[in-house]
């Protein structure tokens, strides 16, 4: 594969050759997946005009070489279905050209006249440079054109160049934590467009990843009725953390609007201090009666709605199994379940030696517990041997990090690039 940088406008009209050298069509445009941050977007593929006056999509993985005279495809099949642009896709020549941008370093305003793409170390292609034309100087006969790195200009992210529908399509491919980070950077009007369009379940997932200040601000915009619906969709421990940031009157009003079955576990969590095991725990761990089989336990752990940390362990209790449960007997690690026969009973596999956390245990004690036993979840049991819930290591980390850590972009660029590449491949496989 060619390693040289190539400008998309110069690719337009180039012949597209098959592995045998036969011309298939001509390049019309390049399809990219814009991001919500400043990192270079991935090139998903090319739009190729066939001789039959029809356009198809060719993934970049099918491109073997880009030369000044032609684009050569690698061996393998190409989907000949007509090109249909998806909501999370952007055409470089059709949509990015003439987009208004600002050079970050100088503050100069201009418009995009071309964009350069080049392969990365992972064999993906990315848009790495943009050619920007500025207004013609008074004494100059020609407008000035400069080439800047993608990160060196602003105005080309999804939020700036695309409508709310396109932005939502991109958000659908992202993790809630990444959506929360992107949402916090959007202008207020665009934030509200996104919030209005998200359903309560998805918005709840995003709310759990927002900083306390963003949570309070956006909760006020929602209004009491929808705020209560979103709180119901959140995990009880995250809902309790959010309500704990509000005044007693506001929290009480929202709790009254929630369904009793959803508000009751949240009320229980609010009885404990935020930095205790009771305040950190989730009241919805996987609980089983002693006569449950390994197959039943694994089915509960496979539930995609159960967070990975909670799925690492099941807790065995005497009925009733809803928290606060009957007598707590012990726990069974998921790894142990995977090594057992499906028909075996969990009662014969219970770990009774693992120390328990009391609901009043402080953050320091909880942290030492996780460090000592190398686990990601632990039982919280009261003096009457009732299981109240489980603390997970992610809840502990949330409280160990400095206050307001969600307001900062702490993820290294390499991690973010990896996330972007994973997202873009999901779109790019369509033509494979």
UniProtKB/TrEMBL annotation:
Extract the Pfam families matched here.
CBS, MgtE_N, SH3_actinomycetes
Please give one Gene Ontology molecular function term for this protein: magnesium ion transmembrane transporter activity
Q: Matching PANTHER family, A to Z? A: MAGNESIUM TRANSPORTER MGTE
PROSITE patterns in the record: CBS
- Region Disordered: start-end pairs: 411-432
Species of the source: Pseudonocardia ammonioxydans
Query: What keywords would UniProt list here?
Result: CBS domain
Quote the InterPro entries the UniProt record gives.
CBS_dom, CBS_dom_sf, Mg_transptr_MgtE_intracell_dom, MgtE_N_sf, MgtE_transporter, PRC_barrel-like_sf, SH3_actinomycetes
Q: Which domain of life is it from?
A: Bacteria
UniProt cross-references to SUPFAM superfamilies, sorted A to Z: CBS-domain pair, MgtE N-terminal domain-like, PRC-barrel domain
| Protein name as it appears in the record | Mg/Co/Ni transporter MgtE (Contains CBS domain)
The taxonomy runs: Bacteria, Bacillati, Actinomycetota, Actinomycetes, Pseudonocardiales
Record bears the keyword Cell membrane: no
Q: Which residues form the CBS domain?
A: 281-348, 349-408
Mind naming one GO cellular-component term on file for this protein?
membrane
Please indicate if the UniProt record lists DNA-binding as a keyword: no
